[in-house]
Each structure stands twice: as C-alpha cells, then as structure tokens.
Amino acid sequence: NAGVTQTPKFQVLKTGQSMTLQCAQDMNHEYMSWYRQDPGMGLRLIHYSVGAGITDQGEVPNGYNVSRSTTEDFPLRLLSAAPSQTSVYFCASSYSGLKGQESPLHFGNGTRLTVT
Amino acid sequence: AQTVTQSQPEMSVQEAETVTLSCTYDTSESDYYLFWYKQPPSRQMILVIRQEAYKQQNATENRFSVNFQKAAKSFSLKISDSQLGDAAMYFCAYPAGSANDMRFGAGTRLTVKP
Questions:
Q1: Which residue is closest to B45 within chain A, CA to CA?
Q2: Whole-angstrom Cα distance, residue B6 to residue B25?
Q3: Is the minimum CB–CB distance between B85 and chain A shorter than 8 Å?
Q4: Residues A78 and A61 sit within 8 Å (Cβ to Cβ)
C-alpha cells in the first residue's frame, strides 16, 4: 500500500537548471496538489489538480509548471531554478467527498530542494 | 494573506502532562472542516484530528481533542498525557475553497520534556 510516492528525497540544483519532481498515488484520488514548506510560513499551495487534464494555480505558482495526464501522476517542473525556490516540497492527494472539503490530505514524504 | 494563525511558534510540555496548541482562522463559510497535522522530525505529514464546523461536539482521537469555538473562529488542539513521541511541529489547516486548497498556519513546535 504505497499511498503517495514522491521522488527524489533530496536535490541540489544550480541557478538556471531545470528539473522535475515526481509524484504518484495509488489511491485513485481525484485531487492532487503541490505545496512548499518554508520556515515560519507553514505550507503554501503551488498548483493543484481536480482530475486528469485539469490543473490550476495555487497561492505561489510562479516559476513552476504542472500537468496531469493520468489520475495517478502529477509532476512538478521547475523550468529555471532560482535560490528563492530552495524549500521542502510536498505532494498530496485526496478524494473529493460529498462536500469536497472533508477529505484530509495524504502526503508524500517530501523533497528537500536546494538551489545554489 | 495568511488566513490561519498559530500564535505560539514554540511550546513545551512535561511528559504525562497536558498542553493546548492554539489556532484561529478566518472564513465566511458556514460549513467547513478543520484539521490538525503533525510533522515529526522524519518530515512526514500525519493527520491528527478533523473537525466539522457543523457539528457542535468537539472531535476526539484518543489523547488528542479539540476545543472548537465557531463564533470565535478558534480551533485549539489539546494533547493529554503527553508522550515523547508527541514532539513535532503541529499545523492547523482548513480548506479555503476545495479539499486541495488547504491553508496552513505557520506551525507550533512542541517539545516534550522527560
């Protein structure tokens, strides 16, 4: 029972490099999302998806791209990394539920990204 | 703008004692859900407890309970009989729009002293 699988666990990039953070879930959840965690700021939503082919921006989307070609996968792309993107990144998923809000988030184990 | 406020960056409790972590939030909704998540040093995010605003009764999960004051928009987490394994960051959260637009507080770091 894998849940939400996130890779890699750690990554170091140089300014201007690109990379993709991978996220996969095996719970058939409709919702998937990416958050970044910075000290003193909690978790902030970057992008989210309510189903395959549908994505939308969250609170801090600049510098990040996403796509959702399948229910299971939701990769996050950094096209040109900047030091301000140094953070811990979490992928999460949830089911929609009747009211759309009652489902708790299921998180991956996070990726610590450092941009030098 | 931060819509969830945790006013205690750090808290400390003696093992076996009780501690309360504070959280306030801002919403114009009448029915919504509130969550507390725990993040131990392993970095994993773990659901602690969930409260539906429509329900009057405070949620309880073993040693964890909430004090939900809807009119005051307050959602405190009480940990009874604290254990060393309770040491972690605790985040209060609520879904601003949908289940995936979850807004988090800045977190409270709980230390448990033996």
A1: A107
A2: 9
A3: no
A4: no
